[in-house]
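Quick question, first post here. What does this chain look like in 3D?
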Amino acid sequence: MPIGDGEGRELVTDGAEIRTRHIASDEGPLLRRLRLAALADAPAAFWQTLEIVRDEPASTWTRLAREGADSPENLVVIAERAGDAVGMVQGLTPTRRAWLRELAAMGGAPEARGTAAGDALVRAAVDWARRSGAEAVKLWVAPRNQPARRLYARHGFVALGSPQPVTDDPTVKTFIPMLRPLYPARPAACR
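> Answer (accepted):
Ran it through. Tokens below.
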């Protein structure tokens, strides 16, 4: 099912088209391939390591694809260019925060950079969050990943402070939390 701008398409500068679609429930191997490629290409952009993710059993990828195929709680969207999968985004609903959706993992092939694939994936994730009734979308971005920070800012995400570790262990990677409200703030008199 195409998602994003209604058609699931976005024209790019070289005339090729980016198409976004929900992952099919049987595409666990595709999700694994895209995730491993993203981790190999940009390891500092993700909190998990290639080694840990590579060791995940096939059942994990099958479950993630099945859960992300068409759900208000979980999302996996694939970006395709000329019929080839060139990127993906995962979204989830945090425990005890039904009002929030998190953009949990986004990655693209190096050859997809500058083709609007990232914009199409962010738009698809935000559209999914809005359709699911969420009030906001949150994500975490590596401080030095300026292209990703600019991408998210273009889509209305704002930084929520300084870099924070993803665990209590100070030796781990740090990330900047960013938030995008999905609805205008209510006037103070209505709160």
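Residues 45 and 144 are 9 Å apart (CA to CA).
The first helix runs from residue 28 to 41.
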